[in-house]
């Protein structure tokens, strides 16, 4: 089987079904977080390049948007099949470019293939409605695609985020332009190489570049009326503002979280520690918006759970993510690594006690490796307890009354998810219902299953993903009144 190929000179984006050379040839180096080596270059597209990409997408939008739903689903199924054929290669790209561990990267490829298949199962849900007729008129609505839409994706799950972004938008009938993160764009280009062989020309475009140039140009473009973004709150705010200035656009943003894990005094300490351990997504170096980075432990079991969690974290093997035995790989890029390290120093300076980790990982001359860090003795006003760190850093807070705990849990501008571990289901549900979040997990380590709405409240975002509502959000409902 041939390997996936795309121009490696860093001068091309993907548009119109082929590789389009950018105007000024600006390059972005792809620096592997494993050893800081430059493994490739990608194009730094400018606004003029985005204009050409949008034009190519417009040329494909009408035929794709009027294609039969089953036909679009079939194209996506073929795309998923090609991903499966190149699964090992795609995983290697995620490892070397994004720093994912081998186990995480392999699991992610399988998850991406499943997502495409799952989204395709929603094909017939993208339908309109009929209304009671007066006898002289036929009344109905149709779901119609926007035409050309843009998706801007984050660095922490590079390939997963692209697949999650394009699947509902393409299925709904939109020509879709995706801008991957400038820090790790190679998996998006690999997916473009697959699209070149299996999707109609222009249906999918991949524009690499910096957010301030390429991303901003996409959001501001007058022909793009639907924008989806996943990333930080600050960037999400700028995107909403830019979109508003450029016209009345449909914008959804999936942003960050400072998610609480609440454990009651009658919970099993070992179960609680295991949930806290899994909830930090150490296989992604803690770089996940879903990570439960605040654990709120009742005073009766605080020390027991902290001891158990510290032991579990200390047992993790930090290493080269290409090795099968590695549990925790590097953070994705240097400035983010420095930012997380700064937070560890801030936590220590604020008086929190380091119970595990707390340092750059030993034994690495190069690369962005950090010990998973557990802080105990954290108080609600500390920065490590209130600000999203987005790395392998956990803060353990103590509580005694339910009112105190709820005040701590809700003392944040975020509202993505919460987890509750309680001695009884009734107690867990009662607590969970009072924590402000878009998702709530009670007495389980399970992930959110596909089909249930994924999304937060407050500063964690606008809109839902992972569900049929997301597919519908890439259409607008048009009303028809037809005389008989």
Would you kindly provide a written description of the structure presented here, covering whatever features stand out?
By secondary structure, the chain is of the alpha/beta class. The chain folds into two domains: 244 residues, 3-Layer(aba) Sandwich (Aldehyde Dehydrogenase, Chain A, domain 1), CATH 3.40.605; 190 residues, Aldehyde Dehydrogenase, Chain A, domain 2, CATH 3.40.309.10. Helix content is 38%, strand content 20%. It has 15 helices and 20 strands. Strands 14-15-16-13-12-17-18 form a seven-stranded mixed β-sheet, with helices on both faces. Strands 9-8-7-10-11-19 form a six-stranded mixed β-sheet, sandwiched between helices. Helix 9 links the parallel strand 12 and strand 13. The longest helix is centred in the N-terminal third of the chain and has 19 residues. It is globular, with a radius of gyration of 23 Å. The N and C termini lie far apart (58 Å). The mean pLDDT is 96.
